[in-house]
Amino acid sequence: MTSLTLVRRIAARPSIVFDALTTPEGIGGWWGPDAGPVLLAETDVRVGGRYGVRFRMLDGREHESAGEYLEVERPWRLAMSWRWLQGGGDPGDSRLEFHLNRTAEGTELTLTHTRLRDEESRASHEQGWNGALDKLERNILSWK
Q1: What H or E segment, with its residue span, contains residue 112?
Q2: Which of 95, 96, 97 is nearest to 76 (CA)?
Q3: What pLDDT was estimated at residue 90?
Q4: CA distance linking residue 34 with residue 19, whole number of Å
């Protein structure tokens, strides 16, 4: 098993970033590694609540992931189980965590994805999450 950690500075308050991570409207603006659309975003943001997200990439492939919220501390921390239902290729559950810290410019977001199967899976998720976080940084202004 291996893990991945990415850190981004986002020009928005932690509460705005948290909403982008947890609301269907927010998720629709950034989830997925390229400019393809989010087709479905469902959230029940509470410990034990479920989420599901399906998106289409520009090449037409669809990916869907789902899981359960394990920790919810608005607006500072979110942890959830992660399982690919379609696409993604990595079988089994992994764990996804977001930590948000207030900065003078807005928010420092730390994404940690653990329990990834191997180095190939880590590299694939790194590429995907970097693309998604690029979109989050670009689109966060629409949620202010």
Answers
A1: strand 106-116
A2: 97
A3: 72
A4: 21
Quick one: residue 70, left, alpha or beta (phi over 0 = left, psi -120 to 50 = alpha)?
alpha
Exposed, middle or buried: residue 68 (CB in 10 Å: 0-12, 13-18, 19+)?
Answer: middle
> In this structure, are strands 50-56 and 106-116 parallel, antiparallel, or unpaired?
unpaired
Whole-angstrom distance, CA of residue 4 vs CA of residue 133 = 14
| CA 42/CA 35 separation, integer angstroms | 20
Residue showing tokens 């608005």: 74
Query: Cβ distance 68 to 52 under 8 Å?
Result: no
CA-nearest of 105, 129, 100 to 5 is 129
**Do 128 and 63 form a contact (C-beta atoms < 8 A)?**
no
Residue listed under structure tokens 């689109």: 139
pLDDT by residue (tens digit) across 11-38? Answer: 999 999 999 999 999 999 999 999 999 9
pLDDT exceeds 70 at position 143: no
CA distance 54 to 62: 7
